[in-house]
Write a structure and sequence with these properties.
Elements: E1 11-14, H1 20-31, E2 35-39, H2 43-53, E3 56-58, H3 65-72, E4 79-82, H4 98-126, E5 130-135, H5 148-168, E6 173-180, H6 189-192, H7 195-204, H8 213-224, E7 235-238
Parallel strand pairs: 1-2, 1-4, 2-3, 4-5, 5-6, 6-7
């Protein structure tokens, strides 16, 4: 184990831990000695993850402030990974379902802010600093066809990252976003593997391939660690170069 990362025995909350990226983050953090609190909607998958990694599980409804407040108040947390997300729909501005838009904002933006609101209260009280990583998207940085609701929710999350970094820096708490390209999870696979979608997308990406969950998780672990002790307020594309083209 590489103790230079200095994550040993630090309590880190990971929301959306039953997703592909969230689950891999839990595995990587556990590998480096962190005490992981794993949150997710799929109780069976969460239990399996706990058996696999030794993480603890925590339950709350990301869309209900009372539930988040009750679960996080009084728990000493050093770090947070806001990984829970809602993919929304593939739709144009002319055809978008406003209920889907509202849900994307509710989960991807408001949910992450709620977790940050209550987790940082204990982080500030403990006076030990800390680190928060929000999982955003390349859709927050460039225009992607059909992603109006999802992109808006993630762009707002990037703004939350910057303002949080500004205001929490005085407490030694760093806040960053990672902005991944497509990872072929159960949620995304059906859309992105369609030839008429995949071919033009990958042809624009210099590395010309999909990302893997560990390629997203490792930079997240880095940003949580002391190796990134002077990095805050960034949006880090993990996108094979897609956003530079």
């Amino acid at each position: 184990m590489d103790n230079d990362l200095n994550l040993t025995d630090r309590t880190i909350l990971v929301t959306g831990a039953t997703g592909g990226i969230g689950g891999e983050v839990v595995r990587q953090l556990s590998k480096y000695g962190a005490k992981v609190l794993a949150h997710g909607r799929n109780e069976g998958a969460l239990s399996n993850l706990a058996d696999e990694t030794g993480c603890q599980t925590i339950s709350f409804d990301l869309e209900q402030e009372d539930s988040v407040a009750h679960a996080l108040t009084g728990i000493e947390i050093w770090g947070v990974v806001n990984s829970a997300g809602f993919g929304g729909e593939i739709a144009t501005p002319m055809s978008t379902d406003m209920d889907v838009f509202d849900r994307a904002i509710e989960v991807n933006t408001r949910g992450a802010l709620l977790v940050t609101k209550y987790a940082t209260q204990s982080m500030v009280s403990a006076g030990k600093g800390g680190s928060i990583v929000n999982i955003s998207s390349q859709a927050a940085l460039v225009a992607l066809w059909g992603h109006i609701s999802y992109a808006a929710s993630k762009a707002a999350l990037d703004s939350i990252t910057r303002v949080s970094a500004l205001e929490l820096g005085q407490h030694g708490i760093r806040v960053n976003s990672v902005n991944p390209t497509v990872v072929l999870t159960d949620i995304s696979r059906d859309h992105w593997t369609q030839p008429h979608v995949a071919k033009p997308f990958l042809s624009q990406m210099p590395l010309a391939r999909w990302a893997t969950t560990d390629e997203i998780a490792r930079p997240i672990v880095f940003l949580l660690s002391d190796w990134a002790s002077m990095i805050t307020g960034i949006t880090l594309p993990i996108d094979g170069g897609y956003t530079i083209v």
